[in-house]
Every structure is written in structure tokens, then in C-alpha cells.
Give the backbone structure.
Amino acid sequence: MKRLFAAVVLIILASVPARATEWMVCSAGEEASISVLLGAMEVIAVNDIKIEVGQKIWSTKPGEGTPITKGQAFEGAGQILIDVTDENVNAIVAQLRLFLAEEGYSFVKGGTLRVAGEGAWAVSCEGP
């Protein structure tokens, strides 16, 4: 009976599709960039974030720069909106506002990145 149960569990796990993650990188040339690790789900799922402005770095990964955390994220109607906060969720550190356009085989993502105290930039994006 235990073998049958184990076999059923393995079959179920093998039939569930894998959920991959991919980086979306939005940049304003060498001036500023934001990299967002997105999970493949029906809704937007932000896993990690890294922001670079000049020599300054902010990251959700410990030890990779000034600590930040994921705020809120929304995707819908041709837009992606992501807020990034400080590690204590006291203040917004950055806001990413993107618009998406698709025509035939062409797909474009672009918008603005604002980093508090640093500036705002028009960005174009690559990735999922």
C-alpha cells in the first residue's frame, strides 16, 4: 500500500508543470537599471529585485547592496507597476511603471524608473 501511495505521489508531482523564473531587466543605458526576477504564474510574482544607479546598488539579496524588500506589484491592461521599499517597509525606495505593447511578433516594454533621492529615468526592458 505504501508503494502504491508513493507511486501516485510521484505521478502527480511529475504531471505538475514546472514554474520557471526569469529576469526582466529595465535600463536607462549606463545611468540606472532595475532587474526583477519574475515567477511564471497567472499573476505577477516578484521574487528578487536589484537596482543600480551609478555605483550605488540596492538588492533584496543579503550582502549585495543596500537592503530593500518587495512592496506591491500589479500587472494588467498592458501595464506593470512595481513598488520597492526599504527593508523595514517604512518608505518607498523605487517605483517601476511599465507599459506593454504587442503587434504581431513585436513586443515592447518600456516606462519609467524612479529611485527616491537619486532621480527618474525612461527605461526599456528585456525579459519575460
